[in-house]
Every structure is written in C-alpha cells, then in structure tokens.
Amino acid sequence: MNQDIQAYNDSQSNEDREICNVLLQEISRHLPEAENKIWHAHPVWFLESNPIVGYSKLKSCIRLLFWSGQSFEEKGLQKEGKFKAAEMRYTSADQINKEDLARWLKKSKEIQWDYKNIVKRKGVLERLK
Known about the structure:
single chain, alpha+beta, Aspartate Aminotransferase, domain 1, six-stranded antiparallel β-sheet, 3 helices, globular, aminoacyl-tRNA ligase activity, ligase, YdhG-like, aminoacyl-trna synthetase
C-alpha cells in the first residue's frame, strides 16, 4: 500500500476517509499492476505512465475520476471536463456499488486515451486502446 495515499485518506473527515479507504481497497484489488502515487495533490493510478483513475476531495463529496470514462458508455458516470474524463461523486461509502466500480476499473484497462502525451500533442488526445 502506498503510504502517501494512506496519509491522504487519513487526513479526511471520518465519512470521507471511509469512502477513500473503500476506493483505495477496490482500485488496488482490480488494478494491482498499476503504479499509484499522489499526483497534483490527489491519489492517482497509472498504466504505462498514463493516468487511469483517481479520487479527490471536493467541497461536498469525494470525486472518483476515470480519465477515459466517457468512452466506457456507462450511465452511472457523468462527463467531466472537455476531454474524455467521467466521474462519480460520493458523500457516503454505502453509495459505492462495488460491482459497478469493478466493471469501470476493468474498462479503464481496456479503454484508454493517451493523456501522457496530451501536452506534447497540444491538447489532442489519441486513443491507445
């Protein structure tokens, strides 16, 4: 377990910490091969240096973000930003549907846009998988 991510989780309020710990456990279980670290002040998982999934504390919730999530074609995920990201927001750990999360994490390995090189390509995303 990444100690920096655990320290991030431990710094949250009780309810948010519970959400973060469930997300950490499930993401780690389904993406054991992924590199994980604190990136831009939030826990993020990477495959081949490409960001795949992460979570962060917003004012009123914990946001789970999939960088390529708009391509998953999942009703539960909401579009986020101008690229291909999609999110789910949680205010309680019991809102986390582990079956949905497992499916999204599987898709995060199978469907990837190249965020690693987005700056080099001047904001143009290319599909990797």
